[in-house]
Amino acid sequence: MRIGSRLFPYPTVNFDQSFSKYVPGTEFNLAFEKDGDSLYQTRDTYILKNVRFELNNEALLDLYDKGKLMCMLIAESSDTVFRERHEIYLNERKDIIFKKDDLSGALEVSAYLVAKENIEDFYSEDFKNFYKDYTFNIEKNCILAIDDGFKIPVIHSPSDDRNVASIFEIIRDEEAERMLTYQVTQDKIQLYLPAPDYDNYIALTQNSRFLDLSFAILIMPVLIDCLANIHKSVVEENYGTIEDIIDSYHWMNSIVHSYKKETGKSFTLDVFMEKSPIEIAQIVFNYSTLNGLERLNKVLQESEEDE
Predict the structure, then answer these.
(1) DSSP letter string over 25-59?
(2) Mean pLDDT over each residue of the chain, to the nearest integer
């Protein structure tokens, strides 16, 4: 649900000041905590943490304190016809959890301040000049304040990779030319994609048949390069155990768990040094390269049959 530039027969506060009918500085917005630039998430959920709304208009605050207004958060994913409403509060924070299986394409989240009853002769000193000489009768369920919120792509990771996919953060780089780059941090491997290529990746991940292929094309080469670089640094950094590596690169813990899940064997420093990076990457990503080729071939065969 997005209001955008839609007009109302009475003034509304809008987070987008260009659409607000109140004087500049009048604010209403959806507030929550993020994990860096992203939402908090687990393998199966997205989490809006410490959700609340913020408002600084005295007239609306007075109505809210009197119980005449409520704030509703609307969450939607149009591809799956998913829609939820949650009441959020001014002085009380709450966590809202969304199951990834309920979502596809994108998750849109917005917030609106709504009348719980009819309100007569509403007026605010913060109305813009055009409305200064008027009062307004507000009907129940009318929207008085708007934050159209945000839209995030929903990326489903292959089901058999445990949590290895979570060590990667795919970032849209508006300024990059046609070149994939990456940066290794203590907690994640950050991949930077030029904007058109990022859009291609998002589109590809929305089709479950191409998940393995998208990982093989984009993430596998980066993981192989990262493992190769760590391989070279084992002697230089005097790593004695795999735990020493994990202390430097927390994301390696996901590699250890996934290797144990796929092989039933412990991923020790000796194993890391004996096996090649390309072999390790294939194991922990459940052979996504070969699976991707197999699924692509099936898609092509189905296409030929349809013709």
Answers:
(1) T--EEEEEE-BTTB-EE-SSEEEEEEEEEEE--HH
(2) 85
